[in-house]
Design a protein that fits this description.
By secondary structure, this protein is mainly α. It contains 13 helices and two strands. It has helices spanning 3-21, 26-46, 56-71, 78-100, 105-125, 127-130, 150-177, 179-189, 191-196, 201-227, 237-250, 255-275, 280-294, and strands spanning 136-137, 229-230.
Amino acid sequence: MRPELLIGMVATVGLAMAPMLVPWTIVMLTIALAVGLTVLGIVVLLRAGQISFGHGLFYAAGAYTVAFLVNARLSLDALILIPLGGLVATLIAVACGFFVVRYRDIFFAMINLSISMVAFSLLEKFYHITGGGDGMNVARPTLGGVRLGRIAFEAWMFYLTLATAALAAFLVSRYLASPLGKALEATKGNETRLEYLGVSSNRVLHIAYAISAALAGVSGAIIAIVNGHVSPEFAYWVRSGEFVFISILGGAGNVLGAFAGSIVFEAIRNYAAAFAADYWQTILGLSLIAIIMFAPDGLTRLRFRRRRAPP
């Protein structure tokens, strides 16, 4: 058994037990795991050497899909709403991808940022449709056909999100280890040679872009259901930058690092805001700086420097 798979299984079991040991962390862990799905999408693109500062677009697409469907009173179950959020985000990525994947490096990052900011502006301006800057409330849907109370709903949403995250991590790991995933890495190393082999680098990146967006869409859909509210800030550049930062914090290009970074980031932000409401940004910044000092390659490669013994 590969070490990464074993670590992932142990981490999944440990997280599954967390709500029993510390029940007040259920919502925080659910949000962290959901955000980790978007970060996992960033990790996929990082394998190709590309960074997207506009993944808030797909995150918001998944969230607003849920909001619109719930407010349309279609009585759809959460198990249907979440995949639909991912599907809408994927369709948007496929359409935008025909243009976006022609560019690389900073141009790729900035084009994604530009499209995301256009979406942010539209969400704010179309007040009668999107609720404008106030956003939209999302009523609690049924889960598995059952109308649950708040506590039971939060608990089941946590386990649903955990299962989704574990499945996504496994599938992405298999994808990155497949010939298509190796071709994705080749677009970073030697794109010209890849073209000579008869493989279209744009097509390879387009597929990765769609997968990345699907993960972000599912993430946004879960967040909308858990929070019960969506707003244009989901598509704002700050949120997109957050996803990129968390991917680097956890370990750039590392599947497990996407969730490790997200959980640490959310934990620090929540507890700093709870115990030092006026200075939580400072505490968050200092904590993250300390992590980066001891783990410059990300949390998944954490190491402590040993002091050399005197000769």
